[in-house]
Amino acid sequence: MPPNDFNTPSRRQVLVTGAAALMLSACTIARAQPSSTPINASQINAWLRIAPDDTVTIMLAQSEMGQGIATTLPMALADELGADWPRVKFEWSDFDPAYRHPQYQWMFTGNSESISTFFPMMRTIGAAAREMLTRAAASRLGVAEASLRIETGRIHHDATKRKLTFGAVAADAAKLAVPKDPQLKPISALRLIGKPQPRVDIPSKVDGTAIFGIDVKVPDMVVAAIRRAPSPGGSLVRFDVAAIKAQRGVLAVVEIPSGLAVVANDYWTARRALDGADLAFAAGPIAGYSTEKQRSDHAALLKTTSFESRVKVGDGNATLGSANKAFEATFEIPVQAHATMEPMNCTAHVTADRCEFWIPTQGVEITHAVAKQMTGLSDDRIVIHRTLLGGGFGRRLLADFAQIAIVVGKAVGRPVKVIWSREEDFRYDAYRPPMTHQVKASLGGDGLPVAIAHRVVSPSHMLYIFPRGIIKAEGDWARPIAPPAAYDGMAVEGLTETPYAIANYSVELNRVETPLSVSVWRTTGHGPNNFVLESVIDELAGAAGQDPLAYRLALASADPRATAVLKAVGEMSGWPGTASVGRSCGLALAKAFGGYIAQVVELSVSGKAVKCHRVWSAVDVGQTLDPGIAMSNVEGGVVWGLSGLRTEATFVDGEIQQTNFDQFDPVHLWETPAIETRFVESGARPTGVGELGPVPIHAAVCNAIFAATGDRIRSLPLSRGGYRLT
Amino acid sequence: MTQFSVNGRSVSVDADADTPLLWVLRDHLGMTGTKYGCGIAACGACTVHVDGQPVRSCSFPLGSASSKQVLTIEGLSRDRSHPLQRAWIEEQVPQCGYCQSGMIMAAAALINEKPRPTDEEIDAAITNLCRCGTYARIRNAIHRAARATP
Amino acid sequence: MTQRIRHVLGAASIAGVLAATAVTLIAPQSSQSQTAQTAESLAAFDTVARVAMSPRCQNCHTLTTFPRQGDDQHPHLFNVTRGGADHGAPGLPCSTCHSQSNNTASGAPGAAEPWRLAPVSMGWDGLSMADLCGHLKDPQRNGHRSGDQIIDHLGSHLVLWAWSPGSDRNGRPRTLPPVPYREFVRAAEVWVSTGSACPRN
Predict the structure, then answer these.
(1) Which residue of A has its CA nearest to B103?
(2) Each residue's pLDDT tens digit, A259-315
């Protein structure tokens, strides 16, 4: 088990020193194999340190929010390299271009992209380092490279039974050229990857030693509680500074956007002073926003023609007029709150020449960019220490909690930990936006659809990850990663690419503005769109009088990965004959995040109470790099998805109606069904599993409810149809 | 000044008697294993034991802790050797881990009273919230810990 | 037996309290005075019943396997259950969240006596006024209490709590029973001492 210094917020990384670390000459490796990534010396240095005392340190660039990435990525590097994994040390990286997603040119953790982005790179870096160490050792021992092997942190010359540590040759290796074409080990030679491994962060999470952002303590630190207008964007119009400051223990009172921060030596002192303060707020820009109006606005937009075509195959809509068995339905998806177990928080120390954070963030680069803009400091004066995250789910991609900490930090001049109450966290979430989705379809003579047309009314999911007014579209740091139109992809993902062959297929989007602050929510657009698509496919199967599994197999016959997961889940669940008396099953398939998942849910309905008994999932992530971690992601994802059938954020007069867990009710232990998961190894490029589990479950549950009751659920959450998940 | 013991150690805290024990532990005593999740006793992340009984410390004032014995996650063992901690590791329960201190303390309260709990007893006792959805493994880990304890 | 009541109500109200000794449930003899007494008894019971059936009392005097909460009397959130001894499931006693006084930080109510449900034998869910009346009088279903002891119980911290129920987590005060405490206790005493008449339905 690797030592627990993994848990320590990182020290400032200075990437350009020689300090006897493995320092490589700048030389770019050409892309040699389909799975390798071009890397150069500074990139290797960004990820791997080998000290003369033989300490191997691997940098963690992807945030750990429970998905296990802080185990699997460094493990891939260590495995390829041949390091002694239990002795590897870890450090959280700060922002650096070396850690950017190569395509987006942005450093972040999210969208289930860490594996597909960095796994090949980790192997290439490990392989390159292995070859350089081997070369240096060969030179030292005066033997051929081919006679050496690296295993468990030692370079062995079997013929003479000599061995060297990495540390002994690291300095020599650093002087060598980076190999142009490092040879990856065959998969069969990997010892760690492909088998379930103990996660490096788990021990500290069972004994109270794990440090999350909210737990940070640094010398001279003070703590702030905040309270803002109950309607986001509203303003604070009256407060009595003197009265608040007169409260015992209050050190400072700082205005922040839409509200106030009170600073004290401990949270409760600050919080109590704030709770007791007489604050008057004016309604802000979204005071007219209500869920009721949003739903009717979206519905009205469906009747207009202001839609942009995103996919058009065949003649799209034209077929719908003439073909058999026309089908039309409108679906509604609610606003969701993230409600990470650890509420938003950030510790910031802002002085004239330095801005230092201790922060649980998925968005290291955006935090850096916001800090740069707000302080005017140069890159090297901005330091980000990352902690563990008590849940991310997309919420911590934003920089708003860093922004507020900067405001308070500037006022206070000492390190200040700004903690959001649970209520603040709900009120100022960046919600999953609401969507309304109309589908028209028609069937051919064989019962399969000849035409499906989607019209989606949705705000962008991703546009506001870059906070309006904070990031200006100018300069290298302050630009959004792509023009706004490119952000719309998420609103139609899961529709634009499906496993199904449909001759006439169209997807149109009306991207609406929303006054809500919105962000990606675990499953992004895939979750909502899969609910619609798979409900429709099920209805069409019903209209055609065909079995839902057979129907999908026919439609997806040209997609072997889809076929494989469908067959697997059919076998696991015994479809269609699984359901015991009084129980019904529902099925759904998803192609998402580069992977595939098929699910069957078995449930029973009693009156309006829905009880899920079992969930089977067949999952294809290409290659399952860690079956244990992958399994836990799917299991947890099932629970996340089930919660999404019950929870929602609703608004009246611009205020959220759910401000704590007595009103926002996710699934609990006693409501969790038995979960069985199988991984199908297609051998495709490895992709992420963090968001797959929840994607098909809405449709699978609703299709099962149909089987049980004859009711088609078209609007979520279930309560809109009077149903209750129990 | 309120005196009580935490994990076997006597402490004396100078804070208002109505300060929630949660924040006394976290801020005054520097013990951050016990977590803040909701502040309204809804989520259980703040669960500790007081005189052997489970308590949601966000809803328990410092004054009520006077002369009592408080046990936190940090005090369950010195070295993760408590059967629940072992089981949590063996089953690889935690994902983000934020809820797990409270979860383990709630489980400890259950097995203190019911050394071999049934699934129904687990359902009724473990009402803590986990947004990562680790519930299936929590259940397995409780059973495993129960089996491991003679 | 009425010591606690005396302590709670203060000496001045003793005048309003009937003679302390041997308050029994036996009706008096004369039919004319019986009618008047019955009417008085029924009127007193009406007050008692309105309090007993108000949310602050009814939420814990349930027949269900769970407590209730709020003025709308919804089932207690978070799957809280009665448990075998009325103080919560093993591992989740009521005292987990409910301590010795109303908690302003969390909004959780509390009292100086361990928080718990009344036993099922003393549950009143859905009872008619007549049934409730019979229930309250029946030693098998009122915790084996005599009339005095019923009055005594009304001085317990849990009962008293209903009149200082604190505020919810949003700072909104919980509603009180329909009559002030003293009036309730007086009505109970009148009812007991006038033969504990029961309405017909």
Answers:
(1) A206
(2) 999 999 999 999 999 999 999 999 988 999 999 999 999 999 999 888 999 999 998
Interatomic CA distance for residues A722 and A701, integer angstroms: 15
Q: Is A278 on the interface with C (CB under 8 A)?
A: no
Q: Answer with the one of B21, B53, B75 that is the final residue of a domain.
A: B75
| Residue C72 touches partner A, C-beta closer than 8 Å | no
CB pair distance less than 8 Å for C79 and A660: no
Residue C75: pLDDT band with limits 50, 70, 90: very high
Question: What pTM value is reported for the model?
Answer: 0.92
In a domain, C160, yes or no: yes
pLDDT tens digits for A494-550? 999 999 999 999 999 999 988 898 889 999 999 999 999 999 999 999 999 999 999
Interface of C with A in 137-176 (CB under 8 A): 169
Q: Is B8 exposed, middle or buried (0-12, 13-18, 19+ CB in 10 A)?
A: exposed
Half-sphere exposure of A405 (CA within 13 A, CB side): 34
Place of tokens 């069957």: A600
Q: Which helix (H) or strand (E) holds A333?
A: strand A324-333
ipTM confidence: 0.98
Mutate to test the interface with B, among A268, A338, A395, A672 (most CBs of B within 10 A): A268
Q: What is the CATH number of the domain that holds B131?
A: 1.10.150.120
Which residue out of A647, A656, A662 would a mutagenesis test of the C interface target, given it has the greatest number of C Cβ atoms within 10 Å? A662
Residue A677, token pair as written in the block? 């998961």
Q: Do C103 and B61 touch (CB under 8 A)?
A: yes
Question: What's the domain range around B69?
Answer: 2-75
Query: Which of B13, B41, B75 delimits the end of a domain?
Result: B75
pLDDT of residue A38: 55
Could you read off the pLDDT of C93-143 as tens digits, one per residue?
999 999 999 999 999 999 999 999 999 999 998 899 999 999 999 888 888
* Domain limits, chain A: 4-206, 213-284+344-419, 292-335+432-725
Helix, coil or strand: residue C68: strand
Q: Do domains A4-206 and A292-335+432-725 have the same CATH topology?
A: yes
Identify all chain C residues contacting A660, using CB atoms and an 8 Å cutoff: 169
Is A603:A713 a contact under the CB 8 Å cutoff? no
The position carrying tokens 């390829």 is A80
